Amino acid sequence: MAPLLPTSSVVISGNPLEWGSWTFATLIIGCLLFRFVIPASMKWEIRLAREALLVAPAALFYFLVRGLVDAKPTDAYAHATMVIQLEQSLGIFHERELQATILHFDYLVDLANWIYIWIHWPVITATFVWLIVLHRRKYPTYRNVMLLSGAVGIAVFALYPVAPPRLMPSLDVVDTVTTHSYSYRVLQPPNLTNPYAAMPSLHFGWNLLMGIAIFREARRLGIKLLGILMPLAMFFGIVFTANHYIIDGLAGGVLVLMSLFVVTMIPTIRGQLTRVTRRVASPASTSPGETRTSMES
Pick from 202, 215, 213: which is nearest to 255 by CA? Predict the structure, then answer.
């Protein structure tokens, strides 16, 4: 394969899953209705089915809203310029140089693409199935963190669109995923993809969340090690494929860690509020001496 040439306009057509908005809306409603008619059960098969019918609509809604966000290209490029300037001031603007180190090595380009594509949704799905089946009490925490961080991410995409490095002509980088992969456009329909959703990188953030879940819940050292290496590999993938800036990945990681803190603290806060409410609602206790004095008076 000849060395890749910088480009930001190559589009692979013929995606069999170019769904419209109504298709997504129908699937979301259908999944929720189907979940409603399935009774709760302790059997792992039923739990898995019910959780799939809850998480799948959330993921579909995420794609739907993200794709329908009407971001102005001028704003997205202006914000991207600000991100670049911030990285330059911090001394971490190295996206172009980092990608240049792999462009003449086919296997490294393929590796970066493979990581970006296949260690995202497939890994999220596999990790959630593993948690539901083997760690059902811990699973809701990670599910809720993903939902919370996804909601915040959608808001940021709408309010602060950022063009990724691959769409910045001045950076002279290559969109390796689009030029050398077809499978990603099947996994993620292009007509419901917001090209200006670089900040924060939930691609990295959610992978970090899966790594945390694997490291904390797994018992074998080898599997725990996978939980450490997987987010590091994804950071390599998002930067070297020119889909995200370095600071996008950092922002995605911070968002997920903050969401994890909030979700973890909710039961504690709820318990404290319950105890305070019970104290206020219960009548003040009085001693026998105080009761006798009150009656004699």
Answer: 202
Of 152, 153, 131, residue with least CA distance to 51: 131
Give CA–CA dist 4/279, Å, rounded: 69
Nearest 5°: the CA angle 248, 159, 184 is: 50
| Range 8-12, long-range pairs (CB < 8 A, 24+ positions) | 8/166, 8/167, 8/168, 8/169, 8/175, 10/175, 10/178, 10/179, 11/178, 11/190, 12/178, 12/182, 12/185
Q: Which two tokens stand for residue 42?
A: 């302790």
Bridge partners for 174 per DSSP: 7
* CB-neighbour burial class of residue 245 (10 A; exposed 0-12, middle 13-18, buried 19+): buried
Three-class SS state of 70:
coil
pLDDT averaged per 10 residues, the chain (length 297): 42 46 77 83 81 82 68 89 97 96 94 93 93 92 95 92 94 88 58 80 97 96 96 97 97 98 87 77 56 48
Rounded distance between C-alpha atoms, residue 227 and residue 264, angstroms: 20
